[in-house]
Amino acid sequence: MPTSAGASAAAYSSGDVTVTGSLADITGCSVSLAAGTYIVEGIFDVLVNNALNDRTFEGHLDVGGSDENDYAQLNAPGLVNVRATLPQVWRITLGSTTTVKLRAQHSGGTVGDFTVKSTNTTITAYRDTLRKLSRKRP
C-alpha cells in the first residue's frame, strides 16, 4: 500500500471485484496518508453484466474504517454489457496517519450485476494546499 508523507499518493486496482450487496474493498486501491487535508479522487471502472434487475452501483471511500457520505453512483436498470468510468471526489481531513480505500456495493439486483474492472480503477490523493484568501480592505 502506498504511503504518503508528501503532497500526493496513488494506487491502482490489482484485480477485478464482483460487486455484492455489502461493501467490499477494491483490490489494490488503498493508500496511507499522513495527517492533513486531502482531495481524494476515486475512479471506478464498472462493467454492467446483465439487464435483469433494477439496481444501482455505489463506489465508496473508506477513511480509517468509516465510509464517507458521498459516493459515485450508476443507476443501471435495463443496461447490459455497458462499461462506465465513474469519478468521485472527496475532501477529507485526517488527524493522524490513516488508511483510505475504495469500496463498492450494489443496491437492488443480485451478485454479479456489476464488476469493478482493474483496468482503470484508481485512487489518488492530493494534499489540499489551498488556503482561505483574505482581502485587506483599504
Structure, explained:
The protein is an all-beta fold and 138 residues long. 0% of the residues lie in helices and 58% in strands. The chain has no helices and 12 strands. It has strands at 3-4, 8-12, 17-18, 24-33, 36-48, 55-63, 66-67, 72-75, 82-94, 98-108, 114-116, 122-127. Strands 1, 4, 6, 7, 8 and 10 form a 6-stranded mixed β-sheet that branches. Strands 2, 3, 5, 9, 11 and 12 form a 6-stranded antiparallel β-sheet that branches. Strand 6 and strand 7 form a beta hairpin. It is elongated and about 45 Å long. The termini are far apart.
How is the topology of this model organized?
Layout: E1 3-4, E2 8-12, E3 17-18, E4 24-33, E5 36-48, E6 55-63, E7 66-67, E8 72-75, E9 82-94, E10 98-108, E11 114-116, E12 122-127
Parallel strand pairs: 1-4
Antiparallel strand pairs: 2-12, 3-11, 4-10, 5-9, 5-11, 5-12, 6-7, 6-8, 6-10
> What do the pLDDT scores average to?
88
Helix percent band: under 10%
The proportion of strand residues reads over 45%
Largest sheet: 6 strands, mixed
Q: What are the segments in which pLDDT stays under 50 over at least 5 consecutive residues? A: none
* Principal-axes shape call: elongated
Number of strands: 12
Work out the radius of gyration.
Answer: 17 Å
Give the CA-CA distance, first to last residue: 51 Å
List SSEs in N-to-C order. Answer: EEEEEEEEEEEE
**DSSP helix count?**
0
The secondary structure category is mainly beta
